[in-house]
Design goal:
heterodimer; A: 457 residues; alpha+beta; OB fold (Dihydrolipoamide Acetyltransferase, E2P); Dihydrolipoamide Transferase; Chloramphenicol Acetyltransferase; 3 domains; 4-stranded antiparallel sheet; 10 helices; B: 328 residues; Rossmann fold; 2 domains; 7-stranded mixed sheet; 14 strands
């Protein structure tokens, strides 16, 4: 036994209320499931409402000829408990009591009349009322973190990006799952995009750019007599892009000091054969300089920074980028955590990275994350250079070639010393000459400390 | 200006043309006499112009189609009514092989100035013989123009232009719009071009293209979405064949996000051709796949109200599809 409620059923599209014209049962009557219990009226149509349950009518809840909303409880019924309640309200069609034969497209007056009535009904009702309450809108929840469609470009987006020279990597997508929409690229402020180019850590990542094959554009070389045009490969174009970025964004300043590295030359000459035999790699001068720079950074952390949109980012790790030139290209692999290495360790790491670069096996992890660059320009005989800072770093130190020179001694005489020029380029937004000078002085002093074999390990 | 329904606007347009040109005649099942057609589109015409110019035919659609061709070639402007677009099929041979080929096969010596009028579309509990969208069956027949108005203004202007056309025009009337739409219609003589789609709402977020009942759903949904900051460009195809490619492609290019809505089955509908045209002409403007919202690929409009509702593209379905496209 259970008390069940029968509610005003759904009577048709967009019918929101109806009334009872006649109750066909009264309180205390026994009804079988599907027996008619009342006639309901909506618009012009009268419909019999069947019972959803078998049982005894308990209470009749609404009066005749009173409009009530669809779903309003109209009757309670005490069921015999022998059957399952049917789910929800049964849907009743207007035609339940209005049997019209539509077989074979019969064109009876009645049927045409019926269709006309339907048209009128639709006209009177207007169109479907919409429930646009938030709970009812089946929009997909937009996840702020789901960027899965960020790199799915529509034909329109690709075309506009090409026409306007927009780097889509720098465009924020407002479409579904981070998709960049046509409006997003149309709204990009190109000048702002160039100015706000986000720092990308590595200069030698080969990011191919479109090559201009537009022969109609006069090339600057066309006035220089006979030429041969060779398309730059991906790495060369990546270098070019990075160099332009460095020189246009970073206001460079330059300082050069000369250092006496006679002790290092002497030490190396003594140890190099043994070192090679013991460690398997040659002992060059370069790791001494890297070591001296790393030690100096510990005292002058301003050298190990990046400019980021008005902020100076101090890098806790000291990751030293080193330049490795091959015949065609310049690679800049990174000694990560360079302060964890001894000179011996640096020798091996530098050797390892150089091998990878020369055999074309550098991976992205080897060239990412540099925080300062030490460049061995001396290896090709240079004695003076003005390095381009490796964006977004703040400094690059060029270690020039070591040459023997006469230098005055303290006692008024001369001696032959091994001298080297250290040429430093700094990002003048972050570092001033004073700080740079102090840093170079520190490097010089560090270089003077490598006096015996214990310095290597 | 007079307030009139879509149905009254068609009636008025026919009446004006019959007054203007005595060669205009109209006929079909129940069209004449006091009844004036099953929906009353031709009401009053027999009384005003006589039984010779507004008359009943037997229940033979092939004959309605053929009579129009015969009258057309001897100088009348014939309007043949098919009581429902579902009943047009017995007349297809007359429409396609005779009427639409007349100018071509006589090198322009003869033309068939005919309007074939017919109510189409569902949502009136008409079941499968009284609800279908059969325009796609006759679509793509060079020589047979198909137009359909979606507003009272267009209804009057378009029927008048169709009657004045020297070549056959298939004039589809959405039966659910007959008395649903009511608007101010100019009393003066005007025509609406037969070959132009109509941008009925401006917007720059998405483009919705449709005709008939679903176009009205789209307009309502567009107002709703406007409150959410989404602005839809809504285009009434109006000229179903040949399509007004220029307007359709421009509208597609404008937003790059196109929703094509039809109450017909999804596959092989007019919208399929519009999708192809846009893909061909506007690829590099497209910012999303071309979307179609349509009825299911089931044989016909069902009679049961719950199934009819399931089949029909309603305002809510249009609204959801539009919002989804805007968010893409």
């Amino acid at each position: 036994m259970a008390i069940e409620t029968i509610s005003m059923p759904h009577l048709g599209e967009s019918v929101t209320e109806a009334s009872i014209a006649v109750w066909l049962v009264k309180e205390g009557d026994y009804v079988n499931k599907y027996d008619p219990i009342a006639e309901a009226v909506s618009d012009k149509v009268t419909t019999e409402i069947p019972s959803n349950f078998s049982g005894t009518v308990k209470d009749i809840l609404i009066d005749v000829d009173t409009d009530v909303d669809i779903g309003t409880p109209m009757m309670t019924i005490e069921t015999d408990g022998t059957e399952e309640a049917t789910v929800g309200n049964q849907e009743v069609t207007e035609e339940a009591s209005n049997q019209v034969n539509t077989n074979e497209g019969e064109r009876t007056e009645e049927f045409m009349q019926h269709i006309n009535e339907e048209i009128d009904k639709e006209a009177e009702k207007g169109t479907v009322e919409l429930d646009t309450s938030p709970g009812n809108t089946p929009t997909t929840e937009r996840s702020l973190t789901d960027d899965s469609q960020k790199a799915r470009y529509s034909p329109a987006v690709v075309r506009i990006a090409q026409e306007r020279g927009i780097d889509l990597n720098q465009v924020k997508g407002t479409g579904k799952h981070g998709r960049i929409t046509r409006k997003d690229v149309q709204n990009v402020d190109i000048s702002a995009q160039k100015a706000e180019a986000t720092p990308s850590p590595v200069q030698t990542e080969p990011t191919p750019e479109p090559i201009s094959k537009d022969a109609s554009k006069p090339s600057p070389a066309s006035t220089m007599g006979e030429t041969e045009v060779v398309a730059a490969d991906g790495i060369r174009r990546a270098i070019a892009k990075k160099m332009v970025q460095s020189t246009t964004e970073i206001p460079h300043a330059w300082l050069t000091v000369e250092a006496d590295v006679s002790t290092i030359v002497k030490l190396r000459n003594e140890l190099k054969d043994g070192f090679k035999a013991k460690e398997g790699v040659s002992l060059s001068y370069f790791p001494f300089f890297v070591k001296a720079v790393v030690q100096a950074i510990k005292k002058h952390p301003i050298m190990n920074t990046s400019w980021d949109n008005g902020n100076i980012v101090y890098h806790k790790d000291i990751n030293v980028s080193i330049a490795v030139a091959t015949d065609d290209h310049l690679f800049v692999p990174v000694i990560h955590g360079a302060d964890n290495y001894s000179i011996s360790g640096l020798s091996k790491e530098i050797n390892h990275l150089a091998q990878l670069a020369r055999s074309g096996k550098l991976e992205s992890k080897h060239i990412k994350g540099g925080t300062i660059t030490v460049n061995n320009t001396g290896s090709f005989g240079s004695i003076q250079s003005m390095g381009i800072i490796n964006h977004p770093q703040a400094a690059i130190l060029q270690v020039e070639s070591i040459n023997k020179r006469f230098v005055p001694t303290e006692d008024g005489g001369f001696k032959v010393a091994d001298m080297v020029n250290l040429c430093l380029s700094i990002d003048h937004r972050i570092i001033d000459g004073l700080q740079a000078g102090r840093f170079l002085k520190e490097v010089k002093e560090n270089l003077a400390r490598f006096v015996d074999e214990s310095a290597l390990y | 200006m007079t307030m009139m329904t879509y149905l009254e606007a068609i009636n008025k347009g026919i009446e004006e043309e019959m007054t203007r040109d005595e060669k205009v005649v109209i006929f079909g099942e129940d069209v004449g006499g006091v009844k004036g057609g099953v929906f009353g589109v031709t009401k009053g015409l027999a009384e005003k112009f006589g039984d010779d110019r507004c008359f009943n035919t037997p229940l033979t659609e092939g004959q309605i189609g053929g009579l129009a061709v015969g009258l057309g070639v001897v100088g009348y402007r014939a309007i043949g009514e098919f009581q429902f677009a579902d009943y047009i099929l017995p007349a297809v041979n007359q429409l396609i092989s005779e009427a639409s080929r007349m100018r071509y096969r006589t090198k322009g010596d003869w033309t068939a100035p005919i309007v074939y009028r017919t109510p189409y579309g569902g949502g009136v509990r008409g079941g499968l013989y009284h609800s279908q969208s059969t325009e796609k069956i006759l679509f793509g027949q060079p020589g047979l123009r198909i137009v359909t108005p979606s507003s009272p203004y267009d209804a009057k202007g378009l029927i008048k232009a169709a009657i004045r056309s020297d070549d056959p025009v298939l004039f589809y009337e959405h039966k659910r719009l007959y008395r649903l739409l009511k608007a101010d219609v100019p009393e003066e003589d005007y025509v609406v071009p037969l070959d132009k789609a109509n941008v009925v709402r401006q917007g720059d977020d998405i483009t919705v293209i449709g005709y008939g009942m679903v176009l009205n759903h789209a307009l309502k949904a567009a107002e709703q979405l406007s409150k959410e900051g989404i602005e839809a460009e809504v285009v009434d195809v109006r000229s179903l064949y040949p399509l007004d490619k220029e307007t359709l492609v421009e509208a597609a290019k404008k937003t790059g996000k196109v929703l094509l809505v039809t109450e017909d089955n999804k596959e092989g509908s007019i919208m399929s051709e519009i999708a192809a045209i846009i893909a061909e002409e506007a690829l590099f403007y497209l910012d999303s796949p071309i979307k179609r919202l349509a009825g299911p690929d089931s044989p016909s409009m069902p009679y049961a109200i719950s199934l009819e509702r399931e089949f029909l593209v309603d305002e809510e379905k249009v609204l959801n599809a539009m919002r989804e496209l805007a968010e893409f």
